[in-house]
Amino acid sequence: MASIYRKKTGIYYISVMFQNKRITRSLGTRFYKVAKNLIPQIEKEIYAAILGEKKNQKLSFPELVEKYLICTNHPWVHSTRMRYNYLLRGYLENGLPNQATTRAMTIRVVNACNNWGYKHCLIVKPTRLEGGSKWKLRNRVFSRMELDLLFKQITDKDFNSFVRFAYYTGARSGEIRSIQAENIKDGYLLVTGKTGARTVKISTQAGKIIQGQDPLWSYSKDYVSHRFKQQVRKLGIKDARFHDLRRTFGLNLIKQGMSIYKVSKLLGHSSVRTTEQHYAPLLTVEIEDFIL
C-alpha cells in the first residue's frame, strides 16, 4: 500500500514498496489534502510503469488488459469474466484498492494477465506484483436479533423478500438477482454463478417467499450492494455486507447439527475443504467449555 511523507522542503512524496525495493515520487504539493487525493493516480502510474508501459514492451499494460479480457479461450464462467473485468478496469482507473482482500484479489488478477501476455508473446517480460496472498477471511455473521431487524424492518417489500430468500437458500447474490421462471423447479433452483451452473435447494421457508414473489427480482449487482448498505445503516447494524447472509446461513446450519459435507453442498463450494476453511475460525468460538 502506498504511503506519503513530507520532506524538509515541505513537499509531499509518495512511497511504494515493490519486490523489497522502495519507489518514491514527488507529489508536487505542500498541502496534505491535495497530496492525499493524488495518491491513487500517482500509485497507478508507478505500477503501470513497472508493469510494462515502456518503449521496449510490445504492448502497454492497458492494451494487454483489453486483449486479455476479450479473449474467448479462457476457461471462465460468466461471473469470473465479469469479476476480472471489474478488477482490471478498476485497477487501470484507480490503481490498487485499499481494502486488503480486494487489493490481494486485484494483484492476483493483474499477475495472471501479465503472465498470459508473456505466454502469448505480447510483452517482453512478465513482472509480478507482491501481495496477492495477503488477504483475510471475513468472519462476520448476523446475530438472531440482527436477522429479525432485517426481516421485519426493511420496508421495501420486494427487497425484503430478496434478503430473506438469500438467507434461507444461502445463495450468492449473483445467483438470484435475476431468477428466470423456467429455472424454478420443484424444490430446487437452477442457477449460474461464481462456480458455474449449480442447483440451489429451495427450503420450505424459501419456497413460500418465491411462490409469492411476482414479478421475480431483476436487480443489478450495484443495486443490491448499495440498497443493502443503505438499509443496514438505517437499522444501526454495523460492518454488514449482503454476502454475510450466506455465511450466517452456513454457520447456523452447522450449529444446528447439519454435517459440514451437506452444508458444503448447499453452499455450492468446490470441496468440503473450502467450507472448512471458511467456517473453522467461526466454529472454534462455538465449542463448549471443557476441562482437561
Distance N to C terminus: 45 Å
Proportion of strand residues: 5-15%
The total of helices stands at 12
| Radius of gyration computed on alpha carbons | 23 Å
Helix content: 40-55%
Low-confidence stretches: none
Largest sheet: 3 strands, antiparallel
Order of helices and strands: EEEHHHHHHHEEHHHHH
User: Which geometry do the CA atoms define?
Assistant: globular
Description of the molecule:
The protein has 292 residues and is mainly α. It folds into three domains: 1-36, no CATH class; 51-135, no CATH class; 144-284, Intergrase catalytic core (hpI Integrase, Chain A). The chain has twelve helices and five strands. It has helices at residues 32-50, 61-70, 78-94, 100-119, 144-153, 157-169, 173-176, 204-211, 221-235, 244-255, 260-267, 272-284, and strands at 3-6, 12-18, 21-26, 188-193, 196-201. A three-stranded antiparallel sheet has the order 1-2-3, with helices on one face. Strands 4-5 form a two-stranded antiparallel sheet. A hairpin with a 2-residue loop joins β2 and β3. α2 crosses α4, α10 (244-255) packs antiparallel against α11 and α11 (260-267) crosses α12 (272-284). It is globular. The relative contact order is 0.08. The model has no long low-confidence stretch (mean pLDDT 86).
